[in-house]
Amino acid sequence: MKLNGILPTAEEKESSGGEGKIDVEHGCQGATMKDVSLALKPPMGWNSWNIFRCYQLTEEAVLGIADAMVESGMRDAGYEYLVVDDCWQAFARESSGKLRSHPARFPSGMEALGEQIHARGLKFGLYLSPGHKTCAMIYDRYPARDIGSFEHEQLDADTLAGWGVDYLKYDWCEAGRGGTGLTYPEAFSRMAEALARTGRPIVYSISEYGRTKPWEWAADYGHLWRTTPDIGASWRSVMKLVDRQHGLAEFAGPGGWNDPDMLEVGNVGINDVEARSHFMLWVMLAAPLMAGNDLRTMTAATRHTLTHPGLIALSQDSLGRQGSRVARQGKVELWRRELADGRVHGILNRGGRAVHLQSRDGGIVLDSGRRLVTDDGQLVCVWTGEPIDADGWSAALQPHEMILIRSDGRH
Ligand code: GLA
Question: Residue of the nearest CA to atom 9 in ligand 1?
C-alpha cells in the first residue's frame, strides 16, 4: 500500500506537536497518513464560496479567477490553491456511483478544469461533505441527492485524485444526521484514510466550524481545521471570529493550522482600513490565507493588501508560531507573534475614535502613557517598511485600524 507522500522528519514532528497516529488497515502499523510537509506554512489560495456562493459558481468564472490569480500577482505572492467550494456537483451521481460536475455550469468536467488550473501554475482544490448532504443542500436549497461522501469515501477520494485534486475541503454539514451514526472525528478520519490510500498528496481541510474543539483532535488527520462558524463580510463578524481564537495558539504549527475561515478582504461590507486589519490579524494568527473576493475586478487597494510582501513574509514565517492578543487597554489591543528571527507586535484600535501612538525610549506608547512595545532591536512599520525612530515617531490609528511593528532578532 502506498502512503501519502513524505513522512515528517523528527524535527517537523516536534514542531507540529506530534504526528497523526491513525493506521491504515491491512497491516501498515504505525504508518502516518498525514503528510505534514504539505503544509509546513499556512496554506494560501482562493476559495469560491464568499463571492460566488452556490448558483453563480461556473467553470467560466473559475477560469477567470485562475487567470486573475496569475495576472494580478496573487500567484507569485504565494497564493497557490484555487479551491472550488460547494455546488460544483451535478444533482446526482453517475450510475456507477461516481460524482460528476454540474453539466450546465461545469460542462467540461472537473478533470479538464484541473488541467486548466495546473496549466496556470496553480493547484486545484475541491469540496466534499462526509454525510448524506452538502451544506448547500441544507442552506441553499441545492436540489441534489446523495452527493455526500458517506459510504462513498474511497470512491470519492479516488475520483478526486484521478482529477488531479491537490486540496480537499471536507465540510461537516450535519453529517451525523440521516442515520449515518458518524461522530465528528470519525467522519474526518474516514476521509483521511481514503485520501492516504489514493497515494496522491492532498492538503486536507477539516471544516466543522469549531464545534467540537477540533484543535484538540484534528491535527491527527488534517492540515487545517476551522475554529469558527462562517465568516461574513463585516467588521463585526471579523471581530467575533478573532475573539474565538484566544488560547488556541499552542495547537497550531508547521503541518497543522487553526483556520478562522476565509478572507473577506475586498468584499462589500468591509472598508479598506478594516480589510487591512482583518488581513493583518489573520497574519498574526498564522491563519491559512484563502482569499474570498472577486480577483477579476479587485481594486488596487485590495490587491496591495493581499499581496503585501512584508505581510506575506510574516504569515509564512518559518517558525510557524501562531500569535495572540497579549493585552488590552480600553478599545486598544496589543498582539504579539514570535518569528524565526525576531517578533512582531500588532496594535489594533477596535474603538470608534482615533488613537495616538508615539515612540519613546525605543518603545511605543499610547497617548494614555501606557507602554505597548518595548524592544531593543530596530522597530520597523511592516506596512510602510519604514524604520521607527526610537524617539519622535508618532502615528494616529483610525477606528478599526491596525499597525504591525516588527522588531529584528537583536534583543
Ligand atoms: C459551510 C461552510 C462554508 C461553505 C458552505 C458551502 O457553511 O462553512 O465555508 O463551504 O458550507 O455550502
Answer: 230
